[in-house]
Design a protein that fits this description.
There is one protein chain. With 334 residues, the chain is an all-alpha fold. The chain has one domain. The chain contains nine helices and two strands; from the N terminus they run αααααααββαα. It has a two-stranded antiparallel ribbon with strand order 1-2. β1 and β2 form a beta hairpin. α4 runs antiparallel to α7, α6 packs antiparallel against α7 and α8 runs antiparallel to α9.
């Protein structure tokens, strides 16, 4: 996973304003690490059932997301269920091999939404202060560049204003649901957030698979990884349906403009959701339709920097970042 951030391992925790909390009592050191991202979105806009319990739904937010696709609630539910099973399987697999499991429970300290439908549980991630890098949109449509071969090339943003300031992808309070235009902007932000996160997993699994030597670990990585690709393509397709609009956050004053992506420009055209063939391994070889990037060096730390720059961990403790850096560095050293 690539990011334009130049942050180092020491920088990651320094972007937060909160003091250091007490360290984890238990730290584990398995040879490969992975954690799941449990979506808060299902509480507000998905399908609440025995498979993905929690929350009671927010009708206004649900309907705003349905503008992107009438089946968004089902997709949100299924994506959430998938990530839960990944988390549960990976920890169970580690335990079956006599390895310590990964527990991020002590870091669920962030307050989420108080809007109707929220369970009110403390969170691991922050979905209200996001800065989204939407350059993946043009990266997958560009036939001439590959970030693995062109690491300094800057792919244009699909939604430039999402890459400036901090934006919320969920209604923070019921007040955020009273203005239809702003609520749609929140839903649009969520649509691009889904794809932005999943394109990262789309690259991370094949990047890490190149480091694995244990047959079962390779099998796990190449079996779970393609589900991330399925998530990414689904969310990319739905993000393209975000209605064009401009809105200003009444709390922060940050403005966002979602452009019309139903255009002829092939770098932006919304229905071009299949990876455009591009240079791969060497420019002496013919173009190939591929996942990109997939370079393995520093892949896990790159992923952590990317998610941190996104604002997903805004407000987390220094202890959290120290633990996450430990996990990422262990994965990159494997």
């Amino acid at each position: 996973m690539k990011t334009n951030s130049a942050s180092t391992a020491n920088d990651i925790g320094n972007t937060q304003d909160h003091p250091q909390t007490q360290k984890l009592e238990e730290k584990s050191r398995p040879y490969k690490r992975s954690i799941s991202r449990r979506s808060f979105f299902n509480e507000l806009a998905g399908i609440q059932d025995s498979e993905v319990p929690g929350g009671s739904g927010n009708p206004a937010y649900h309907d705003a997301l349905a503008v992107l696709d009438e089946d968004m609630d089902q997709y949100i539910h299924d994506n959430t269920e998938d990530e839960i099973t990944h988390h549960q399987f990976l920890n169970a697999y580690l335990a079956s091999k006599g390895m310590p499991t990964v527990n991020l429970g002590p870091f669920r300290t962030l307050h989420g939404s108080t809007a109707t439908g929220s369970s009110g549980k403390l969170r691991l991630t922050n979905l209200t202060k996001l800065t989204l890098d939407t350059s993946w949109w043009t990266r997958y449509r560009d036939p001439n560049h590959n970030p693995d071969l062109d690491p300094t090339f800057v792919f244009p943003q699909a939604v430039p204003s999402l890459h400036v300031g901090r934006h919320t992808a969920i209604p923070r309070t019921n007040a955020d649901t009273t203005n239809a235009n702003f609520l749609q902007a929140i839903a649009n932000t969520a649509g691009f957030h889904f794809a932005t996160v999943e394109q990262g997993g789309n690259s991370l699994y094949p990047s890490l698979a190149q480091r694995a030597t244990h047959e079962e670990v390779i099998r796990i990585l190449i079996s779970i990884g393609p589900t991330e690709t399925m998530h990414f393509q689904t969310w990319q397709d739905k993000a393209g349906n975000a209605p064009p609009l401009t809105a200003t956050d009444p709390v922060t004053g940050v403005s966002v403009t979602f452009p019309n992506l139903d255009v002829s420009n092939p770098l932006l055209k919304k229905n071009l959701i299949m990876p455009e063939p591009c240079p791969f391994l060497s420019r002496s070889l013919p173009p190939c339709s591929i996942i990109r990037p997939t370079k393995t060096e520093g892949a896990a730390m790159g992923a952590l920097r990317f998610l941190t720059a996104m604002g997903l961990f805004f407000g987390q403790s220094q202890a959290f970042f120290a633990f996450m850096i430990q996990l990422a560095q262990a994965a990159d050293a494997a």
